[in-house]
Amino acid sequence: MPHDATDPHAIENALTGAETIIVKLGSQVIVDELGRLAIDRIASYVSQITDLYHHGKRLAIVSSGAVALGRQRLNLKTEIALTPEQKQSCAAIGQSLMMTMYHQFFRHYHIQVAQVLVNPSDFSDRQRYNRLKTLLHSLLDLGIMPIINENDAIPDLQCFDEQWASSRLSPFSDNDKLAALIAVQVEADLLVVLSNVDGLYTADPYKDASAERLSYISDLSALDGIDTSGKTSLGRGGMASKLQAAELASLAGTHVVIASGLHHQSIQRLLDFKGDNGDFPATFIASNATQDTRYKQWIGLASGYNGVIVINEGAANALLKKGASLLAVGIVEVLGQFYAGDVVAVHVEGALDEVARGIVQYSASELALIKGLQSEEIKGVLKRPDIEVIHRDKLFVESVN
Fold first, then answer.
1. How far, in whole angstroms, is CA 195 from its chain's centroid?
2. Phi, psi (5° rounding) for residue 195?
3. Closest by alpha carbon to 189, among 260, 259, 287, 284?
C-alpha cells in the first residue's frame, strides 16, 4: 500500500485504507491474572471485530491462550514452568476451550469461525505454505473468520543436528511471528498486535520514567537500540518478539500497530484514529517493503528450513558483496536431509550465524557428491545439467536487504 512518510496524517490514511486486517490477541489480554478467560474483554474484541467485518473488512484472528487455558483447567500453577509434555496436554485441552469460546461469541453475530492450527514447518515447505495460503483466502472469501494458533499440542520435531536445532524450527514466540507470517501470506494491509503494553518505548517504561513511546515509525532503522528486555508470566513472547514480528511484516509490505488491548474499545479506538501522527495512542510501524518479491520474503522470513549448507569465505564474499548465485565449489559441508526445491539455510564455515536462505536445486545426497567441485567436474559425477546450487533469484541474503 503506498505510504508517504512526510504526510502528518499518514497513520490516519493508512488505517482508513486498510481492507485486510490481521488481529493478534496475546495471552496477556484474553486471560486474566489467575489464568481464567477475560470474558468481558474478549466479548468486546469480538464486537469490535464484528463491526469491522460488517463494514466490509477482511479479518483473521491470531489468538494465543490455549496453553494458558489448559493450564488453568488442569490446575497447574502459573509460576511453575511446564514440561514439554505438560505443555502439549495443556494445548490439547485449551484449543477446544478457546474455539468453543470464539464460536459462541461470533455465533451471536451470525459469523462462522474456523480453527486453523499451524506449525513452523507450514512456512518452510513451499507446497504446505501454498495450501495454507489457499485455505486462508478461501475462508476470507467465504466470509468465515479464521482463528489461527500454533499447534502446541503436536509441535514440529526440531533436531537433525544438535548445533542447528534451535534455529531450524523455532517456535512462533507467543504467536507474534506467526501473526506476521500470516499477514505476509494473505498480503494484509494491517497487522494489529494487542498485548498489555501500549507500544514501543525508547526504554523500559516500568524502569525508566523518562521512556517515551514511539508513536510513528516510518523507517525501520529507528528501531535500532530500543530496549526490548522483559517478558510476562503468560505466554512466551515479550517486546523483542513483537519488534521482530513488526519488522518482518513491515519489510513485506504490511503496516503494523503495536498497542494495548486493555483499554476500552481497544481495536476501534485505533482504527477510528483521526489526527497527527504524533498523537497516535500506540506505535504505528509503516510498511517498509523492499524490492524483493513476496516469494523472496517467504524464503528469507519463513519460520524454518530443511537443512544447512556450510560455505567457505570465498563463496560468502560472492553472495554478500557480488550478488552471485551459490555454486557447488564453495560448499564445504551439507547437513540434514532435503530435496531439490526445499528451503535451506546458508552458513559460513566456522560461524553459526545464518547469512542467507534459499531454494536449493539439488538434494542433500547430490550435494554430498559434488560439494567443492568446479562446474566442469560436476558433469562427470551427476547425470543432469549443471545448475547453480541456489540461483540468485531464489536466494534471500539478509545482510544485503
1. 16
2. -145, -150
3. 287
Q: How many residues does the chain have?
A: 401
Torsion angle (degrees, nearest 10) of CA 289, 292, 298, 304: -100
The class of domain 305-396 in CATH terms is mainly beta
Q: What class, spelled out in words, does domain 10-295 have in CATH?
A: alpha beta
Paired sense of beta strands 283-285 and 255-260, if any: antiparallel
E-strand stretches of 78-231:
113-118, 145-150, 190-195, 216-217
The tens-digit pLDDT sequence of the chain (401 residues) is 456 668 999 999 999 999 999 999 988 899 888 778 899 999 999 999 999 999 999 999 999 889 888 998 999 988 889 998 999 999 999 999 999 999 999 999 999 999 999 988 788 777 888 899 999 999 999 999 999 999 988 877 554 555 544 444 455 656 888 999 999 899 999 999 999 889 998 887 778 888 889 999 998 888 876 766 644 444 444 677 788 888 888 988 899 999 999 999 999 999 999 999 999 999 999 998 765 666 777 777 665 688 899 999 999 999 999 999 999 999 999 998 888 988 899 999 988 778 999 999 999 999 999 999 998 899 889 988 779 999 999 998 864 43
For 57, other C-beta atoms within 10 Å of its C-beta total 16
Which three cell numbers, joined as nine digits, stand for 297?
A: 520474503
Kindly list the domain boundaries of the chain, sorted by start residue: 10-295, 305-396
